[in-house]
Amino acid sequence: MTLRGALLGAGNIALHGHAPQWTRDADLRREVEIVAVADLSPANREAARALFPAARICARAEDILESQALDFCDICTPPFTHRALVEQAASRGVHVLCEKPLAPTVEDTEQIARAVRAGRVVFQPCHQYRHSPQWEAVSRLLPRIGRVYFVEYEVQRTQAGEGNPNWSPAWRTDRDFAGGGILVDHGAHIFYQLRAILGEPETVQATVRTLQHRSYRVEDTALVLLDFGGCLAQVSLTWAARRRGIRFRFVGERGEIVGDEESLRLHGEASEDIRFADGMSRDSNHSEWYAPLFRQFAERVRTRDHGLGPLDEALYVTRLIARAYESSREGRALPLVAAAPATATLEVPGEMGTSTDLIGLDSSLGPPEVIDVELEVEKSRRKLVLRLGAVAALLAAAAWTFHDVVWGELWISVKSARLGLIILAAAINLTAVGFQAARWLAVVRPLSRAATLGQAFKAMLVGFAASTVVPARAGELARMHWFARRTGLPRPTVLASIVLDHLVNAAGLLLGLAILPFFVAVPLWIRPGAAFVLALFTVVAMLVFGLRPISEPAAPSTERLPAKGLAAFLANARQGLAATTRPRALGLSLGASLFSWALEVNVVAVAMRAVGLHLPFTAAFLTLLAVNLALAFPFAPPGNIGTLEVGATIALVGFGVPKEQALAFGLVYHFLQVVPIGVLGMIFAGRRRGNADGAVPA
To answer: How many helices (H) and strands (E) does the chain have?
Structure first.
């Protein structure tokens, strides 16, 4: 029976490393069929469709795992996605073939191991370097040099391998995605090779640095010394060399083996020279090395070989890399297996145990938090006063707006509005929303190359539509949820990018307030609103500045994002602020914001003409600022009902416009803002389209 497999992730290593073997190797073609492929990028999906024309191609990995009848999945995504995908597959009894390294942290690898054991599935890491001609020759010749007591292994590269251009070309150099630099990317292969012949080291001593590529958020060079007791192994890895190359040396009691990517020589009682047709630095995919690994995996699946040797090897690699980073931070050699931390306990006579045992507390917990009840009550009282004050201010403004309105004249003004101009204003407004989507996309692109302008535009419309039925700010949660499902980004990451997007938008608003005095006398009523926006902008900017990711960490580590809780939320949120370290991204975002503001001024001007107001362009500018200051109100009702009308009326009355006509403008402007956007947003929200939780191209 043919084994049914799914390729999760269709990036470089999947299309150029894995796919050629699944489609061309005669044995694998008889035994295996790839029936589904998932990837975030439309371009990658099209490339996969050409290779697997009969397969189901989609963006959403979880859809494949949930709905397809699979024997196995082949995970070709970056390390930070592996845990979720393996857990989903194992829970469904789907066997797993997974790219290296297994995960960025020891905790994640241990969780993966638990899932594999609980699911009783076959697991195989992609440790294909053991099938390279060079390593096969080394393994064959090692017995001829006796006990090995010294090893040197050197890898030289001029830069990191490029990530997938259709997702994130630089993901390998972003610690949040890759988990580390060259120590993770290439060191993993060397570490499992050395383990196969030397066992596991007693201690690890490492130094990792970023020597040349300062734009990398990971190390570009690592020196690692492994002490096996009777043997020392020195591993040198760099992305900062002037040329590509690999050299290795194994010294034993009866001779030594010296080689590079093109040749190998045995020096001993008898000599032997071996030449290799293809060098190890020829490319980074080495597709032909995967075939024996895949055949071995397929055989294990057929025979239900649940042996844990390959899983243990993958766990070892992650553990060794983590200890190497720790060693570099601490500046000393560390045992491979960390000693269990000592726990201080209170001595209690007899068999009563520790003091925490006496009261039934977990001894790992810290001291209970002391809550100042009076202080908490005072804080709650202050919040209530502020909220009541804000609501009272809004109600007062609304009462002033509506108290002396002649409703018949208001109806005449609304009824006489010119429909053609309203439609034109609505079209310009949708174009402005397009530039707002471009503004947001500019701060999202450092997170995911797969994110598109269409996705950002639709997500904003979905958020606006939700805001018509829920408190206005709550619509951003719908925007976050919709976009996260389409891009595979964590929701806290998307939420943080939305906050940054609002910050850039506010910068445009503040710029408009700054230049306002050059065009018109600033009304007194605008000053409190401007002060509030400036204060809010300052607070949010300080928060973003404090949480922003560090562009060049001094000490790279494999610390993975926490699995849950506040720490996980903050860690994911920091990813969403990645654009704060990219001036070009912020510049593009601000540029799109200014275009959007310019278009919105025209929307106001056209809407004014629609209700018969022929005011100077400065009036449209001031009215737009007034409306947006009103919308900055922290307790805006659903759809900003009333809030927008109040802001427009206050601004236009200052230009001598009767309240009825000012309110008519507010209603028309509100209509063209809400109705087209709300309808489109609901249409997009109702469509079910996949995302790729974890189907990120490697």
So the answer is: 26, 15
